Amino acid sequence: MQTQALLEAVSGDRIRQDLFHLSSDPLPFRKMNHTRPGQTTCSLYEADEFIEKELTSAGCRVSKTFHRVQAFRCDSSKPIHHWYAPAKPEDPWYEAANIEAVIPGADLPEEIVQLVAHKDSMSWIDSPGAHDNCAGTVVNLEIARLLAGATPRRTVRFLFCNEEHTPWTSRAAAEAAAVRGDRIIAVLNQDALDGKSDADMAAGRMTHVAAYSTDEGRPLAELAAACNARYGIGLDCRVAFKERVNDDDGMFIKAGFRTTIMNVGSLPYADSEYHLPGDRPERVNIENLVRSARLVLATVLEIDANGMG
């Protein structure tokens, strides 16, 4: 595969269109406990339909599994960015879908590069969730389109899961992969790309953090940073240790897949509209998303060509 040509093929127009479709018009939210007027299915199911259609049209092999979840409760006595609270047993249960897309490897199909992004928005508050995590969703969707038209040596698999409902459905996917004995050689979780401080937004800084939580994850994070320099992507990219083994990357680490990183806009996370109604797509720097997509894609292509050592 021609790496530079694929990197240049990342489309800001497609990323923008997908971002606004999934976090503004027609879908203001992506959650089980919100159904748009005149619709018969919830907004998360509408998002699923869009994602599945795009993946199928690109030529990916797509499957869905359903998992019981609840909406988080809202506890406004807590700090505003953390108003989520555990659901009660008597609260409604829903069937939320994990969407998986596979691009089979031509030479080493048993080796899997796993990309992850949670597609849902906050279930306890009405937030578009543009940075968290529509941004990661549309970046993975764009990468899937491009790789579906290529011929990777190793299998590339995409998981679009749910983290703003409870329990997190990435845990089910990671544990199922462990039970099957999947040979996942790297996991890259894209969450809240371009999410950064108001000062960084005002200055137009193109930020990216490759965060690792395990010794095995550090070389993967360093590879991502090296790709930024090697291909002239132009991000202010740094490698950081993430002490908490949480988020969707943490679910894979806990299932035994320790060569895992989280790609994020800032760490500690600095977006002032985190988990708030102001997390709107108009605040997202599309060029930052394009560059982050190129960095993630370049990292995947490097792993596909050379493995993980």
Radius of gyration: 18 Å
Count of individual helical segments: 9
Helix percent reads 25-40%
Low-confidence stretches: none
Q: The CATH topology, please?
A: Aminopeptidase
Sheet-strand content, in percent, reads 15-25%
Helix-strand string? HHHEEEEEHEEHEHEHEHEH
Model description:
It is a single chain. The protein is α/β, with parallel strands linked by helices and 309 residues long. It has one domain: Aminopeptidase (3-Layer(aba) Sandwich). Helices cover 37% and strands 23% of the residues. The chain has nine helices and eleven strands. Strands 7-1-4-6-5-8-11-9-10 form a nine-stranded mixed sheet, with helices on both faces. It has a two-stranded antiparallel sheet with strand order 2-3. Strand 5, helix 4 and strand 6 form a beta-alpha-beta unit. Helix 4 (130-148) packs across helix 9 (286-306) and helix 5 packs parallel to helix 8. The protein is globular, with a radius of gyration of 18 Å. The two termini are 20 Å apart. The mean pLDDT is 98.
